[in-house]
Specification:
By secondary structure, the protein is of the alpha+beta class. Helix content is 53%, strand content 16%. Strands 1-6-5-3-4-2 form a 6-stranded mixed β-sheet.
Amino acid sequence: MMRFARAVIVTSVVVHLYQSSLFGQTIETEPLSKRLELLEETMRALERQVSELSTTLRAALPPSPILDIQPFDLNIDNAAANGSRNARVALIEYSDFQCPFCGQHSQTAYRDLQRQFVDTGIVRYVFRNLPIESLHPLAFKAAEAAECARGEGKFWEMHDRLFSNQQALGTSDLLRHAEALNMDSAKFRSCLSNGETTAKVIDDLAEARRLGLTATPVFLVGEFQADGSVRITRKITGAQPFQVFEAALATFLPKSPALRRR
């Protein structure tokens, strides 16, 4: 923008001198002090115009999906997590298994994040439940099912299956998903019918509300602290392209091999 402003100023000066010569004024006949004063006035006027234009352009641009937020510490002890326990960075997703945008994320950016950051031990990916029942009446039970699967060590397999079959989240569908994953059918049925994981989903919801999270998917990014908590400093809203997550992580991992490959 500043280079543009300088170019405009120079062009204006050239035009002024040309116009002056047309009307009989020359560099020799116009006092130097007068020419300098006119030049300064022109520069100030152009700087104001450039400033106003810059403000207008910024206002017209869509807000960035990456938001730097007031840092706070978040405990993730009781959450499904994937990736190395030695990772320095955590990416925490608050999600709804019936949300189409969450499904879109699971089929696109999530897969690249898994391959380039989670599988390589750079990032630990954490999942928290945020079923929005007013919009997605099957989401709460699906979240319970995923937590039941977690009890058998198959949370991420169920996570992938639920997001790949968002039109099949009824109770009978959930039982079929468990069978397809070779889970203990009787144990899973009991967990689901007895509400063994209801409290976990409610706790996740309460935490999301406390943090002011009301839509899905939403992501929190931060660094692990010595006590195992995560110091959250960034938020990403919505199903964004992989490049958005890559940019958000770059702040924490400027020398990451995964970033250098891009």
